Amino acid sequence: MSLTELQAPTAGGTRTFVVGPYLTRRPDRSAPFPGSGDNIEVVRDTDARIDEAVGLARAIDLDVIKPIVINLDAVRPSTYIGKGRVEEIAEAVEDDEIGLVVVDCALSPVQQRNLEKAWKVKVIDRTGLILEIFGNRAHTREGTLQVELAHLGYQKSRLVRSWTHLERQRGGFGFLGGPGETQIEADRRIIQERMTRIERDLEGVKRTRSLHRESRKRVPYPVVALVGYTNAGKSTLFNRLSAAEVMAEDMLFATLDPTARAVKLPHGGKAILSDTVGFISDLPTTLVAAFRATLEDVIEADVLLHVRDVSHIDTQAQASDVNEILRELGINPDSPHIIEVWNKGDLLDEAAHERLLTIAASRPADNRPVLISAVTGEGVGTLLTVIENRIAQGRRVYLVNLEPSEGALLSWLYEETEVLERRADTEGHLAVVVRIAPEKEPRLLNRFPDARTIR
């Protein structure tokens, strides 16, 4: 396959089959729900898997004619699926005038080439499909560069010696290569040169983001980052917490470029809320690496909100996938700065809703999930309080006494601290209980030398 062919985009509206070749394994339904699933092998529900694959295809406007589930005992090295099923699909492709087949697995270059020969249409695997979606959704310069970098890495791996024209000898044309260089070698070198340029450009973007983070630290506001499986409701929750207007649709990968907004906490403090790209099972390693710069807000966040769709049949498997990607980013999923947010409580029946509330209440306070609905607002107030308390761990609490005439100092307390309590006597003297970030303590004590630590 040539470089030009590889770079051709997948056209929206193309008549498409989505093939799900899944190894036959029995799910372990005895595991406690919901949980991380990290200590057991989590097997996904087949119907949920093919539905997700169809959703991915429709996310780039492909016209999915039919999903096809194939239960496999073993993977065939040459075509991934068995010869008989390959022939059946070939007939269906011709009968239904299909222009593209999406195979919901990671195909080797040889398997992809063999299936394209058998079906006489373009074939893309799960990795290629996710890259297509990311290519359509990236809008910022950083997002576009990261997608292109990941796409080029994928294309480079697809350059196999599949047709004789790739073996043609090229003459010397400057950077195009000297005598004896084959077309495939020239294509690989062109890709590598482009990847090197993108990596250099991304370093510049990364430095700019680093400067922005440093300026935020000087403010300073803590960073609260949203992570979770794609379509778990992160952007809807982001909008609910920050009153922003981020795209929030029932669509896989609706959010790609990172977005940050200020959010006010219950006692007057502020935090920077950061929305991120949704994670997904079998996320290409090239994308995890390419998006590491975007996910630096996640890596450096003071609090992580792991948003889960607890109404989804595969919520446990999805949580396991997210935790695995967090580990790849060097984050311990069991860290105390991670809060599990059990979203879409409005989609549960009453019995399931009460059961999850009971399960959450039984967890230790520092590891207790919060059941919410980002759509209705249920539990959001509790979530903000939990976020505030998690940020406040290690912060000192002071008692400050004010005279009735010291209104400017009272205003300063509301601007720079969290006012937890305020009491006034009959003569207007104020006793104010505040919590403050460590870096602001010297300024507090400079203004209020008689301030007393109470915890």
Automatic annotation (TrEMBL):
Residue stretches making up the Hflx-type G domain: 222-395
Domain of life of the native organism: Bacteria
Cofactor(s) essential for the protein: Mg(2+)
Keyword presence, Cytoplasm: yes
InterPro entries xref list: G_HFLX_dom (IPR030394), GTP-bd (IPR006073), GTP-bd_M (IPR032305), GTPase_HflX (IPR016496), GTPase_HflX_N (IPR025121), GTPase_HflX_N_sf (IPR042108), HflX_C (IPR045498), P-loop_NTPase (IPR027417)
Molecular function terms from GO: GTP binding; GTPase activity; metal ion binding; ribosome binding
Pfam families listed in its UniProt record: GTP-bdg_M, GTP-bdg_N, HflX_C, MMR_HSR1
Gene Ontology CC annotations of this record: cytoplasm
Binding positions (Mg(2+)): 235, 255
Signal peptide (from-to): none
Residues noted as binding GTP in the record, renumbered to the chain: 228-235, 253-257, 275-278, 343-346
Keywords: Cytoplasm, GTP-binding, Magnesium, Metal-binding, Nucleotide-binding
Predominant location: cytoplasm
Subunit record text: Monomer. Associates with the 50S ribosomal subunit.
HAMAP family per the UniProt record, alphabetical: GTPase_HflX
Role this protein plays: GTPase that associates with the 50S ribosomal subunit and may have a role during protein synthesis or ribosome biogenesis.
Listed name of the protein: GTPase HflX
